[in-house]
Amino acid sequence: MVVVDDGSGPEYASVFGSCRATVLAHEKNLGKGAALKTGMAHAAAQHPGCGVVTADADGQHDPDDILRVASRLERERNCLVLGARQFDGDVPARSRIGNRVAGLLVRALVGQRLEDTQTGLRGVPERLLIDLLAVRSNGYEFELDMLAAAKHLSVRIVEEPIRTIYEPGNTKSHFHPFRDSMRIGFVLMRFSLLSLATAAVDNSIFILGLHAGLVPATAQIAARAASVLFNYPLARRAVFFSRQPHPATFSRFLILVATSGFLSYHLLGWLHQELGWSLIVSKMAAESGLFLVNFLVQRDFIFRRRPQKTES
Question: 18-50 as b/e, with b when 16 or more CB fall inside 10 Å?
Fold first, then answer.
């Protein structure tokens, strides 16, 4: 057992001193994600080849549930096991609402409905640990990044039902609904923000090409080439956490770019000729219409590691 003291201060030294566990300490509070990574790094170094079970220290996880999640991880060593609370009965409104909102957003991110996206009780397989240590987030958003990383590494996510335990008022929880939901929302917005930045590059080159006298098709090709150089490295590492070799991902990415560009060009032409829209407006409308398709293809086919047949 490993306990992480995330900068609690000297007044709590006696509490950690009484723990019958390995205690790792941060001099100052670095965030939940940082604490989890500290514990995971220690476990990976001291017990190579093993997975870990993470549990919050706010009294919300029954020891029997922790053991049950550990047992599930032992049976399904290649899966990320989430201890899923049921959220029935007397549950604080901020926890109930926060989990429902996060659940809808996470479903778009990982393509899977999950009952409890914010649970701190998780069984993390060994094959996922090293990749999680490279994730940059250090706050509550780290747990969402964990789900995204599992998705794109083809680590199956399963849920193990656990009890829902809250103290009156949920006073021990350090989750701040507005602040931390904004952080979680920013994780989900990364693809959107990258897409907007890419669109700015793409449209700028397209407009410059038209002003330089290029025909729309040539301007479109030049714009798409520039956007590929801008978008690919950021999407690969900052959004989808891909560590696959470039030949595996870049070739698929180029196929998507070519297909998307072909569809965008013909849709642009139809909007311009049939509806009389300007070329610039037509291009922006065409790209916006293909936004969701591009996201889903990148999420499920380009930056997702192919699952191995031997995995359980």
Answer: eeeeebbeeeeebbbbbbbbbbbeebbeeeeee
> pLDDT tens digit string along 126-173?
999 988 998 888 888 888 889 888 987 889 999 999 988 765 544 445
pLDDT in tens, 79-98: 999 999 876 655 555 555 66
DSSP 304: S
**Secondary structure class of 242 (helix, strand, coil):** coil
Contact 96, 87 (CB under 8 A): yes
- 213 Rama class: left (phi>0) / alpha (psi -120 to 50) / beta: left
> In one letter, which amino acid is 192?
S
How far from the centroid of its chain's Cα atoms is residue 11's Cα? 35
Describe the crossing of helices 93-110 and 141-152 by its angle, rounded to 10 degrees. Answer: 30
Give the phi and the psi of residue 159 in degrees, each rounded to 5. -120, 140
What is the distance between the alpha carbons of residues 125 and 73, in angstroms, rounded to a whole number? 7
Q: Within the chain, where are the H helices? A: 13-17, 32-46, 63-75, 93-110, 126-133, 141-152, 177-211, 216-234, 246-274, 279-289, 291-297
Task: Give Cβ neighbours of residue 169 (< 8 Å, ≥ 6 apart).
Answer: 92
Task: Tell me the two tokens of residue 134.
Answer: 């490279």
Most confidently predicted of 100-109, 118-127, 163-172, 214-223: 118-127
Contacts of 185 (CB under 8 A, 6+ apart): 105
DSSP 3-state of 84? strand
